[in-house]
Each structure stands twice: as C-alpha cells, then as structure tokens.
Design brief:
Number of domains: 1
Strand content: 15-25%
Radius of gyration: 21 Å
Strand order of the largest sheet: 1-4-5-6-7-8-9-10
Number of strands: 10
Helix content: 25-40%
CATH topology: TIM Barrel
Bound molecules: ligand PBG
Largest sheet: 8 strands, parallel, barrel
Number of helices: 12
CATH superfamily: Aldolase class I
CATH class: Alpha Beta
C-alpha cells in the first residue's frame, strides 16, 4: 500500500502533457473565433480611417469603411461587431445618441446587407460619446448624474439602433433600471426580437483610458465612480447581474475582464444566462506596450489572457485582439 502511494509513476500528470495533440485532446478550455466580438468606432467626423494611438491597429472609421471591416471579421470567423459612435455634434443631454442619421444607425444600415447571419451586430448604448460633459447620463444643475432622466434617452437610442438592424443592444451606462426601460421601449415599438446584452457588472476602471481617447468620452469633470461599480465589490456585482436578468436582459457582461476573473467565475456558477466578458482597451494597450518593449510575446500573452477569461467562464469575449486572435487560433 505505502509503496503504491509513494510510487512516482501513479501520479505523473505530465503523461498527458507530453505532446501538443495530447494536450489538445484533454484541454478543458477551447478558444474559438466565433466567441470573439470586435469593438468598432464609427466616427461621423472623419472621411478616412483615423488611427488611434493608444489602441495599436485600431482606427476611427467613417461609415463607408464598415462593410470592409465586417467582411474581414466574417472571413476571420469572428462572432460579432460591437459598435460605438462618435457623433458630429455633442450636447448636454446626448440627444444625438438617438439620431437615426447618427454614426451607429448609419453603420448598422450599411452593414445589414453585408454582415449576413454569421456576424452579430451589437450596438453599444450610452450617452458619454454624445454629451459635451462626457458623462454617461444627463447631469443635474448641481453636477450630479440624473439617473431617471437618463432612462428615456437610453431607451430612445436603443430603439433607433434596433430599428436600424442591431441584433443586440448593449447598455453600458450603468444607470439603475435601464434594462427594464429599454425592454419596455423595444416591446412597445414591436422590436421584440432585439436582444439586450447588459453591461451589468461594469466597474469604474482605470483600464478604460485608451477607449476614452478613442471615443472622445472622458468626463470633463469628476469621474464615473457615482454610477459605475466599486472595484472592491464582488458580491454587489452578482446583485447587479441578478437585477438586470430580472429586468429582462438576455445576456450580461462583466467588464473589465482580466482584473475581475473572480467575478466572472462567481457569476458563471450562479447564473445560467450567457456571460460576456470585455477585455477592455487598457488591458489590450498594456499588452501591446509591453510587447513593443520586447518584454512579452504579444501573441502568447494575448491568447493566454483570452484563455484565462474563457476558463473563468465567459461564453463570449469582446476584445480588441479579435481579428489577430482569430488568425492566431487558426494558425496553430
Ligand atoms: C461607455 C463605455 C466605456 C467603455 C465601453 N463603453 C468607457 C467608460 O465607461 O468610461 C470602455 C471600453 C474599453 O475601455 O475598451 N460608457
């Protein structure tokens, strides 16, 4: 008995690690391009792609570039596009988020024909790109965010995107009650087939920096800590998710992904709804910056971080690596 237990041969985990084929056979987590979603910035103010310095390989695109990027995403086997808009004009209340001729509805209409059934079209719903102050909601004269006054503005924007052909609308504003408000508005407009992907557990994060450059939506005063979640709270994230599912969200999201893998894992264990994770701009930029200095191997680091997010329990990953990662997955 004691000789058997102490025999080194019995517990050699390395037997199944000895070659790539064996490792692939027993892998618990598998990445596939179809689980990736590519964020795209549609800019009403540019007539040619305008590079985003802090997001290497990404650019703000005019509407007419959208079919090209959709073709690329489709042939890479990517699951979907997540659209963000930069409007021609901003105002106090972000009214242009619901402009049917704004960048996102125009892009959706341009994409509807080329995207086909293989590419899900997801429209981000938020006001921060559309407000002069850069906050995600309407602001009171005292300078606080007016949660309830924001809800109809978000619902109107979601309806316009749904009418323009979005398969999913994805509210990222973190106002309380917005999922119910959006579902109600969609149903009222007979848009019962449009799904809601709620950014349920969205943390107030320093990792959004490059995105705010890209989308020109940095708050002009204060920060987003009064409406986005506190990084210290994991149980509260589960309560946020439960509330959004109760309000009618079809899927939910945890964001950022890398620093919040515990939240992804806990949410996976608790909820059966599809779980999306957003590997945000700062996570992408950090890996790029380190690799530009020769400190890490970009491809291996990117795939490892995506694997970690999937292993934690994400069904779908929004990532700026989507096109590259899809190609890398195919190569190996
Ligand atoms: C808008 C929004 C943000 C991101 C997605 N939607 C920025 C923010 O909340 O400040 C961040 C995405 C990223 O960093 O890649 N509300």
């Amino acid at each position: 008995m004691s000789t058997l237990v102490s025999s080194p041969g019995r517990f050699r985990r390395s037997r199944l690690r000895r070659q790539g084929r064996l490792r692939d056979l027993v892998a618990e987590t598998r990445l596939d391009p179809s689980m990736l979603v590519l964020p795209v910035f549609v800019d009403a103010n540019v007539s040619a792609p305008s590079e985003i310095a802090s997001l290497p390989g990404h650019a703000r695109l005019p509407v007419r570039e959208l079919p090209r990027i959709a073709e690329k995403a489709s042939s890479a086997g990517i699951g979907g596009l997540l659209l963000f808009g930069l409007p021609g004009e901003k105002d106090e209340r972000g009214e242009n988020a619901a402009d049917p001729l704004g960048p996102v509805p125009m892009a959706l209409r341009a994409l509807r024909d080329v995207a086909g059934p293989d590419l899900a079209l997801i429209a981000d719903v938020c006001l921060c790109e559309y407000t002069t102050h850069g906050h995600c909601g309407a602001v009171t004269p005292e300078g606080t965010i007016d949660n309830d006054a924001t809800l109809p503005l978000l619902a109107a924007a979601a309806r316009i995107y749904a009418e323009a052909g979005a398969d999913l609308v994805a509210p990222s504003d973190m106002m309380d009650g917005r999922v119910a408000a959006i579902r109600h508005e969609l149903d009222r407009a007979d848009l019962t087939e449009t799904a809601i992907l709620a950014y349920s557990a969205k943390f107030a994060s320093s990792f959004y920096g490059p995105f705010r450059d890209a989308a020109d939506c940095a708050p002009q005063f204060g920060d987003r800590a009064a409406y986005q979640m506190d990084a210290r709270n994991g149980r509260e994230a589960l309560a946020e998710i439960a509330a959004d599912l109760e309000e009618g969200a079809d899927m939910f999201m945890v964001k950022p992904a890398g620093p919040y893998l515990d939240v992804i894992a806990a949410a996976r264990a608790r909820f059966d709804a599809p779980l999306a994770a957003y590997q945000v701009s700062g996570e992408y930029a950090a890996l790029h910056a380190a690799s530009a200095r020769g400190w890490i191997d970009l491809r291996r680091a990117a795939l490892e971080s995506l694997t970690g997010i999937a292993r934690a329990g994400a069904d779908m990953i929004v990532t700026y690596f989507a096109l590259d990662a899809a190609a890398w997955m195919r190569e190996r």
